[in-house]
Write a structure and sequence with these properties.
This protein is mainly alpha-helical. It has five helices and three strands. Helix 4 packs across helix 5. It is elongated, with a radius of gyration of 20 Å. The N and C termini lie far apart (79 Å). 19% of the residues are buried.
Length: 110
Amino acid sequence: IQTAYLENAVHVAVLLHNHRTLSAASLRELGTAENTYTTLYKNHYGWYERKEKGMYKLKDGMNKRIQATHPDIWEYYAKFVKNVEAADPGPRKKQPAKPRGKQRKKRTRA
C-alpha cells in the first residue's frame, strides 16, 4: 500500500527530473497534488533541494534511488508525465485581455 503523499512526492520528483528546476506553482500547473508546496517544504524523504527562493530541484542521483526503491510508482508517473506533455506540447500564447465595460467609439472631426 502506497500513501497519496508518497505518490505525490514521486510525481514531483519525476517532473523535477524532467524539467530540472520548477516552482511549486509550476508543479501544480503540471498536475501535482494540492499539497505540493508542503511536500517540497517539508522534504520528508530528503529528495529535493531548494535552488533559490521558491524554486526546487531534485538532488543529484535521487532519480535512480527513487526508481530503485519505488519502481512501480516512478514508472507510472514517468509514463503519465510523458503522455500529458505529449498532449500539451508547450506553453500557450496568452490571449489579449478582453476589454471591460462599454467601449466608446472614437469620434473623428470632419
